[in-house]
């Protein structure tokens, strides 16, 4: 049965025809013409298909091993693949030229992220945080730290981690206990236990640079008392720092990624950013990580879609009710069954629409880096949506695609159930999706009285003017529901402090529905003058989205306007069964 | 962390206050008074909590083992637990007295099914088919077969399987190749390979009775040429039949259940029902199995809800925006967060509403067995809904409850991810959920021009008259959407043969939404005169359902009225990525 291959045609369509990246004068984009873009996209696809994809089933079956000395082995083939990755240079494509990267912009970097995650999601976890970690060190680190670490992380010689969570403090970082004691030489001694550290220990690089949240002795209580530190596994003098991996988790999936409990026993580290300013420094990294998680949702959706589509075409079961491809055959392909198509069309509509959205957002990030503050605000507004809506739909798509395979979808050897297990974590880590919803409703929507949300709505609306009625009309209705819901939330937030929290998840889903719908409007416009098969498929898929997904906003709006009162009414103890 | 305990209070509420089973004069119900019902329900809960629940994590970690001689060992403790089950007699509670059962009716049998599935779903797979198998043999078997097998299956001395699927023929049974050759003594020699046979081989009972679909030499093509046979592992003379387990599957979950590839090499069997009438005979068993799968969805929802509720109450993270239970604490329980409550209230609303629905349906089955043809038609109409909507929402609830645990939900030792993996198969087996939807829309709705559907709607409507407006009004709207959608489907089915298939899934979801809403109306009525905490919790949960779930029907109706044309428009090859 077929596995995954890079969806280069669709990627190139978004880059060239929708975003028109080769016409942009953003920094780094001047290197790009259509030939280079094609060569890069195809090269990245080839690397991921040939080097990473074969590791995916192996890594799931084998997992990681922690040895008695605390060292951790990654699955067979990961070391060689990592060496090939560095050799290929694809890992540095979006990295700043100043530190040895190729500076081609986030758009192409995001394409590579999608492909790596589709090919082998657990492998991708090791380099996954590199972009965010380098941004953090560049913007918050001293010159000495930048010089010592950034180039080596960019090149792939070192890898990095994000060490935030503690056993009793997940989302609520203010509760953390890890301590940082100032030393005479300006360094800090870090002591504490961190859990759920992806790639906390492994055998891919000699050094691992941990970015660790901890509290200084004079720290104010809560999340305003947290500082961020750079704590390397190997110190500059070549000795081992006082860091050890106490254990690795046994998880539902993503088995090739070592999820570590890490002990810091007076380990030497250096401050990143200001004292007690760790949260701000961390959010540079966290926002990058959240967007990356959304891309994982895309990758799982695309990978599972490809397997299910191939299966549906090959598998002969039942007979169609309408025109049959071969009336004399005992059975037709699964594609004659409308309900099988429903699942596959849902998957296409999400994967292609969401690909456009994450690549559009990546380009906005490049705009923001070039100083465009409106782009920055839009990225900030959409970050929780991309993280949560993307990972929710990515998981759901994988579950639907597993369904297309029937019983084979549940059996390990067919590879579908692994995608479901691997995809599940994306809804949880880097801020559980409910936390993303609260960020959107409580911070991004309410903070400025809805101003960014209005700008987003205006952008969408502007593109509806020239759109064909079959998509413009349901989009306008969905946008109207969203505006009404946002207005209702802002009006009622003062009266009941739980209003925004109660409405948050449905509101995030509405923005997700509308944002992807917007991308379909733009894609339909991009193929307006074409009548080839690709253009026709885009129109059919867009229409499916308009008919199946856009109507959801009315139910979401009704949910929101139900308010918080009844949600908060049940006494806490009544949640337990008598 | 707490695991599962039997939700006896809620069960007893449904049995006594909603269904009033002790007041019914249905056969077998005359044995029941409230004391007996309470003793039975609590006894079943105690058995499942003490004997089965401890096996659940062990069975997942250990799975089943097939040995070189083709024998299969179940996980540690299953043999002892199975012996205790037979000893307890709970397994025979709903079985016909004529064959050694206790004849107390399907309602109490269904309670036991729920509890067993919550406690250890993979264990439940072994006795899971017993009810359907005995019904099939009783109604389709010769007197000799009945005498030889039914009592031994009822008592638990033998177990049974359903052997339908072949490698190339899943849903499409007409394609099957297994052959049955008539022998001179009236028996048949069965030859072929069956896959996905739950409990095809194991060490719990000496004999295993396979109910096998096969084709006679003169069989017409397709599904009208299938016959059903009883094929025991051990023949009446004590010798082994020519049946062997070729392998067991490695699956996403339900590891304690041995899913076997079974070879029949001229095995001796006897006809059940008429020649070429296997499909009808099989559907006796299949309908029972489908309802049982719905009960699995309930069980997974309840089990995961209990774990998540306990975690949410214990785990202190973040501070509430409204009134805080303890303003001086550094953090509150997760229950102060509206979005955490959203997930838990969704889970309650589904689990409690669906419990009422499956127990109501079980009582209708008892009515149908007593000769009530309207009850029979209603059960037949709701069977695909209970199977598919129940397993979909059961899985989704488990996924949501996993989310409440954050990162711990993804780690094996917390027990939540196992529920998700175990729950996933329910959407696939015994007819994938898309097949259920087609059964509902194509057979149950369209066959009689919508007559049963109208009767169902009339029953619901009758209960809305006395309901409070806060639930009567949204229920009436949901019912209106459903009627409009059904009307639209019936009107358009003639024009485009794919109409019903395209609409089927959304229609099934609508019926599920309305049927559970109906049960909430009835539960609200049952606590009308009470103002204790239990009654208040019922009203709060009902209101949550009315606000959050009932509005979905408008979006589902819009989806349905989108029609089939665009869904079928994409050429088959265009589903593959270029």
TrEMBL record, chains A, B:
Protein name in the entry: Acyl-CoA dehydrogenase C-terminal domain-containing protein
Coiled-coil intervals, chain numbering: none
Transmembrane segments: 502-521
SUPFAM superfamilies reported in the protein's UniProt record: Acyl-CoA dehydrogenase C-terminal domain-like (SSF47203), Acyl-CoA dehydrogenase NM domain-like (SSF56645)
Cofactors demanded by this protein: FAD
Domain Acyl-CoA dehydrogenase/oxidase C-terminal: 278-443
Keywords from the named record: FAD, Flavoprotein, Membrane, Oxidoreductase, Transmembrane, Transmembrane helix
Domain Acetyl-CoA dehydrogenase-like C-terminal: 458-571
Domain Acyl-CoA oxidase/dehydrogenase middle, residue spans: 162-265
InterPro entries membership: Acyl-CoA_dh-like_C_dom (IPR025878), Acyl-CoA_Oxase/DH_mid-dom (IPR006091), Acyl-CoA_Oxase/DH_mid-dom_sf (IPR046373), AcylCo_DH-like_C (IPR036250), AcylCo_DH/oxidase_C (IPR009075), AcylCoA_DH/ox_N (IPR013786), AcylCoA_DH/ox_N_sf (IPR037069), AcylCoA_DH/oxidase_NM_dom_sf (IPR009100)
Top-rank taxon, per record: Bacteria
The Acyl-CoA dehydrogenase/oxidase N-terminal domain, residue ranges: 79-157
Protein family per UniProt: Belongs to the acyl-CoA dehydrogenase family.
